[in-house]
Amino acid sequence: MSMKLVIAALALLLSACGGSAESLTVDNATYRAPLTDGGVGVAYFSITSATADRITGLSSPNAGRIEMHATVTKDGMASMERLDSVELPAGQTVIFAARGLHLMVFSPQPVAPGATFPIQIELESGRKEAVSFAQTLGTDHR
Ligand SMILES: [Cu+2]
User: Fold this and answer.
1) Global pTM?
2) Which of 15-24, 50-59, 105-114 has the highest mean pLDDT?
3) In the chain, domain spans
4) pLDDT bracket for residue 7 (50, 70, 90)
5) What phi-psi label fits residue 28: left (phi over 0), alpha (psi between -120 and 50 degrees) or beta?
6) How far does residue 23's CA lie from ligand 1's centre (Å)?
7) E strand or H helix at 79, and its extent?
8) What's the CA-to-centroid distance between 30 and ligand 1, angstroms?
9) Distance from residue 115's CA to the centre of ligand 1 (Å)
């Protein structure tokens, strides 16, 4: 093989390993601890998957259970709906934020000041992303 061919093959390999087709980006991951013992924590984040996928599960070594909820307003009344999965259209950012999609964290362990709260996001494709959620203050979990 000539040196030119070797370089071309290497360039191909490098671009294949660039990972853009597989990329998953999580931003603005924040966690609000409950104010009282036995309360429920809430977590927000935004997520972008380069390929179409779905969030199918969430877990944390520091929580009993994590659910995905949507806040829906019907006739002026806000209520929450539990979601089994959330669609991630290819290349589109899906935002979990106040008064919209959110994570509810049941039986959370207390987090030390300045420490992060770990949550693993599981996708239908089998991908798993371990995310460190930064603590924020606040009480409105919707
Ligand atoms: Cu909720």
Assistant:
1) 0.81
2) 50-59
3) 21-135
4) low
5) left
6) 28
7) strand 77-83
8) 15
9) 23
What fold characterizes domain 21-135? Immunoglobulin-like (2.60.40)
Q: How far is the CA of 20 from the centre of ligand 1 (A)?
A: 33
- 81 CA distance to ligand 1 middle (Å): 7
Consecutive H or E run containing 135: strand 128-135
Reported as a single tens digit per residue, the pLDDT across 29-53 is 999 999 888 899 999 999 999 999 9
- Ligand 1 centroid from CA 80, angstroms: 5
- 40, 141 Cβ separation under 8 angstroms: yes
Span from the CA of 16 to the centroid of ligand 1 (angstroms): 40
